[in-house]
C-alpha cells in the first residue's frame, strides 16, 4: 500500500466535514496536507483504531501515550496541538442544544452515507477492531463514593506518587507544583525557580504572616511553602498531603533545614484536621481535587479551622462558565491519565461558596498568563531530560506529562481556563478585617 497519508487526510476531512489543519505523515513514510502546516506523525495503524473507538481527546491521548502519534522529529509540539485544539475543544451545539466537543460533534454526521463509507475505509486502514488495550498509565475504573476520603487518597496517589526524582526533573529545585509568579521578561530574572520563590513570597504577604503564628497549608506538596513561611516569617506551620512520597520528601527537607520545631508534615485529609484554630490557611492548587459535591464542606471546614480575623489564600484553577452548568463534564484525558476525579469550577462559583460558608472575600487576582509561562517552563525541563524522565517513571508517563502540560499551557493562553488567588477573611463580629486600605501594596517586595 502506498501513499497512506493522502488517503488518511482525505478520509479524515470527509468524516469531519472540514479541512484538516495539519499535515499527515503516515507509517509508510508518505506525507500529505497543507504545505508548511504542523506535521502529525501517525507512526502505527493502531492509532486509527484508538481514534475510531474513542473519537476525541481520549482516543488521541491513548495513541499519543503509546507513541503511535507524534510530532515530526525536531518539531515544536505547541503548533500541532494548537491546530488540533480546534477539532477537540471547540464547542458546538447538538440538535438537543447540549454542548459537544468539536470532534464528537462529527459523530452526528454518521447519518451521511459518505461519512459512513469514509469511517469504514479508515477502519480498514487501521486493522481489525477492537482497539488495543489502553496504555498501562491510564487509571483503571475507580470504585467507592466519589470524593470520599479513601477514593481521594487513591486519586492523589495516582497523580503524585510517580516518584520525587521525576517531579524534581520537571519542576526544578523549587519543587513547587502550582502556578509561579513571573517578573516581566525584560527584568532578566525570569526563571521558573525565581518565579516560584516570588509566588511563595506573594502568598505569605497576602496572608500577612508574622512570627509565632500558626499556618495550615492544605495540600502542601513537597513542603516548599511551609518551609518558606517558617524560615522567612517565623511561623509554626502544619502541611498536610495525601501523598506518602510527598510527605517523606518534605520531612527530609524540614530536617535538613533544621526546622523540625517549626514545621510538621502530616499525611492527612483536610476533613481530618481538628487542631485549630490557625491564624492563616493556604490552599495552593489543591481545591481542584475537592469536587463540586464536597466544596461547601471544604469551605465550611477551613472556616472552622481559622481564628476570627484569620485569612485564607485559595489558589485554584477555574474554567469558563457554561450557559447550562449541568452540562459540565470532567475532561476525559485529564480524568484517565492525570487528575482522577478532578473538577474545575468557574471562579464565581468558588467565590459564592466561600462567602456562603461565612468568609468575606477581599481580593481576587487572576494569574492566567503566569500559569502558561510556568507550564512552558516545565515542558522545557521535561523535554530536555526526557530520556531520564522515561527511566524514572515510564515512557508512557513521560508522554502523558508532555501532552498534559503543553495542552494546558495552550488552554491558559487561549482563556479556556484560568487560575485565581482568592484572599478571604473570617471577619470577626466587629467587622475589623485587619487588611490594609490599599491591599495591592502587598506586591511590594
UniProtKB/TrEMBL annotation:
Recorded superkingdom: Bacteria
Protein's GO biological process: lipid biosynthetic process; methylation
Keywords carried by this UniProt record: Lipid metabolism, Methyltransferase, S-adenosyl-L-methionine, Transferase
Residue intervals of the Polyketide synthase-like methyltransferase domain: 166-424
Molecular function in Gene Ontology: methyltransferase activity
InterPro entries linked: CFA/CMAS (IPR050723), CMAS (IPR003333), MeTfrase_dom (IPR020803), SAM-dependent_MTases_sf (IPR029063)
Keyword Lipid metabolism among UniProt keywords: yes
PANTHER family according to UniProt: CYCLOPROPANE-FATTY-ACYL-PHOSPHOLIPID SYNTHASE (PTHR43667)
Similarity remark: Belongs to the CFA/CMAS family.
Protein's UniProt name: Cyclopropane-fatty-acyl-phospholipid synthase
Amino acid at each position: 500500500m502506498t501513499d497512506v497519508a493522502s488517503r488518511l487526510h482525505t478520509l479524515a476531512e470527509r468524516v469531519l466535514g472540514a479541512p484538516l489543519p495539519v499535515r499527515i505523515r503516515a507509517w509508510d513514510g508518505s506525507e500529505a496536507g497543507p504545505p508548511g502546516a504542523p506535521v502529525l506523525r501517525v507512526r502505527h495503524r493502531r492509532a486509527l483504531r484508538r481514534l475510531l473507538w474513542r473519537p476525541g481527546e481520549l482516543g488521541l491521548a491513548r495513541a499519543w501515550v503509546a507513541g503511535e502519534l507524534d510530532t515530526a522529529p525536531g518539531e515544536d509540539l505547541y503548533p500541532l496541538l494548537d491546530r488540533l485544539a480546534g477539532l477537540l475543544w471547540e464547542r458546538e451545539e447538538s440538535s438537543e442544544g447540549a454542548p459537544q466537543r468539536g470532534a464528537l460533534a462529527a459523530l452526528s454526521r454518521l447519518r451521511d452515507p459518505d461519512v459512513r463509507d469514509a469511517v469504514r475505509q479508515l477502519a480498514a486502514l487501521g486493522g481489525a477492531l477492537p482497539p488495543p488495550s489502553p496504555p498501562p498509565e491510564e487509571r483503571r475504573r475507580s470504585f467507592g463514593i466519589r470524593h470520599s476520603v479513601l477514593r481521594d487518597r487513591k486519586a492523589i496517589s495516582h497523580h503524585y506518587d510517580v516518584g520525587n526524582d521525576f517531579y524534581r526533573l520537571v519542576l526544578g529545585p523549587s519543587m513547587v507544583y502550582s502556578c509561579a509568579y513571573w517578573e516581566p521578561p525584560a527584568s532578566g530574572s525570569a526563571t521558573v525557580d525565581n518565579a516560584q520563590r516570588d509566588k511563595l513570597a506573594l502568598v505569605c504577604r497576602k496572608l500577612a504572616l508574622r512570627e509565632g503564628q500558626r499556618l495550615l497549608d492544605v495540600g502542601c506538596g513537597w513542603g516548599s511553602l511551609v518551609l518558606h513561611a517558617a524560615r522567612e516569617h517565623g511561623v509554626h506551620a502544619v502541611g498536610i498531603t495525601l501523598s506518602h512520597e510527598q510527605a517523606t520528601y518534605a520531612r527530609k527537607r524540614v530536617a535538613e533545614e533544621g526546622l523540625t520545631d517549626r514545621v510538621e508534615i502530616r499525611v492527612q485529609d483536610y476533613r481530618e484536621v481538628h487542631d485549630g484554630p490557625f491564624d492563616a490557611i493556604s490552599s495552593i492548587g489543591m481545591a481542584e481535587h475537592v469536587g463540586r459535591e464536597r466544596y461547601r464542606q471544604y469551605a465550611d471546614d477551613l472556616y472552622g479551622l481559622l481564628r476570627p480575623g484569620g485569612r485564607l489564600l485559595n489558589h485554584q484553577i477555574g474554567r469558563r462558565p457554561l450557559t447550562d452548568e449541568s452540562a459540565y463534564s470532567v475532561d476525559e484525558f485529564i480524568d484517565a491519565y492525570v487528575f482522577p476525579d478532578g473538577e474545575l469550577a468557574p471562579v464565581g462559583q468558588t467565590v459564592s461558596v466561600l462567602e456562603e460558608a461565612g468568609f468575606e472575600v477581599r481580593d481576587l487576582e487572576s494569574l492566567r498568563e503566569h500559569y502558561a509561562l510556568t507550564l512552558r517552563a516545565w515542558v522545557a525541563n521535561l523535554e530536555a531530560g526526557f530520556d531520564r524522565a522515561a527511566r524514572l517513571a515510564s515512557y508512557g508517563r513521560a508522554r502523558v506529562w508532555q501532552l498534559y502540560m503543553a495542552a494546558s499551557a495552550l488552554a491558559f493562553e487561549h482563556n479556556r481556563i484560568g487560575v485565581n488567588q482568592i484572599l478571604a477573611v473570617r471577619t470577626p463580629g466587629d467587622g475589623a478585617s485587619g487588611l490594609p486600605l490599599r491591599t495591592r501594596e502587598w506586591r511590594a517586595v
